[in-house]
């Protein structure tokens, strides 16, 4: 089968940073689906895993953790899907990724693809939808059934992949008042289209801008951009006994003591945790992806597809990685079909 992989971890402008390769067709394990991959999306995790380092691989490493495709074969214990089903998923970072014509993935991490979407639009969703869902509804404890309607959330980094679906989940399912940040006119417009009630600039004074909206504090904070830079402001803005969640690694120690007087909590969200540690609740990712699909098909949610760049091959993937590393994408970058 065709695939894109690497042997060395190189700068993305190096011709061998990602290579077109051929691999044997994998055989599904007991709980696996073998999926014929039709479209993939790229995420910052791809560029971070591929980032330059001395390590070398004796066999090619295949990246990619956002896909939509068709079930080709199933393992003996599979009960949720059958061959021919259209599915979407992010998968497991400890296993070969979706930059291949066929991929094995545990059925508990897979959702039924939204019936109203094509493969490209569906591939834009899984990793960021899982991340945003777990951040909002698991880590922050917001009700996905609207029981916290009218409360406020600040989403730092609204125009990226996670922010784009996070705005929708918080506004449509949570029924919250959504304040988000964007630094450019086009990204601010994108956030408003997705349902943000207020858009402020994360290059400016967040505290002053939130208070200019008539708010001393906010009920929830989700940081999807530069935890180091924004943490002091977020600590000042979170309500007493509130929670801040982040998905962005800090480069230096965070001043968590700023949260003490408020008895505020700080949480991490990493959507690969369930797969990496084989937790007993892996099925929750299947369930939440099914609920996202229902929301899409009912018209309450929309895909966060930003741009389809071309077919799945090393040249197009190198271009996608370079675009992500430049840091100016809106929505998700997707590749569809095999060249």
Automatic annotation (TrEMBL):
Source organism superkingdom: Bacteria
Residue intervals passing through the bilayer: none
Localization (cell): Cytoplasm
Residue ranges of domain Enoyl reductase (ER) in the record: 16-335
Stored InterPro entries: ADH-like_N (IPR013154), ADH_Zn_typ-1 (IPR014182), ER (IPR020843), GroES-like_sf (IPR011032), NAD(P)-bd_dom_sf (IPR036291), Quin_OxRdtase/zeta-crystal_CS (IPR002364), Zinc-ADH_QOR/CCCR (IPR051603)
Keyword annotations from UniProtKB, A to Z: Cytoplasm, Metal-binding, NADP, Oxidoreductase, RNA-binding, Zinc
Pfam families, A to Z: ADH_N, ADH_zinc_N_2
Gene3D superfamilies to which the protein is assigned, alphabetical: Medium-chain alcohol dehydrogenases, catalytic domain, NAD(P)-binding Rossmann-like Domain
A GO term for molecular function: RNA binding
Example of a GO cellular component annotation carried by this entry: cytoplasm
Entry keyword Zinc: yes
Subunit structure: Homotetramer.
Family recorded in the similarity comment: Belongs to the zinc-containing alcohol dehydrogenase family. Quinone oxidoreductase subfamily.
PANTHER family named in the record: QUINONE OXIDOREDUCTASE
Protein name in UniProt: Zinc-type alcohol dehydrogenase-like protein
Organism the protein comes from: Microvirgula aerodenitrificans
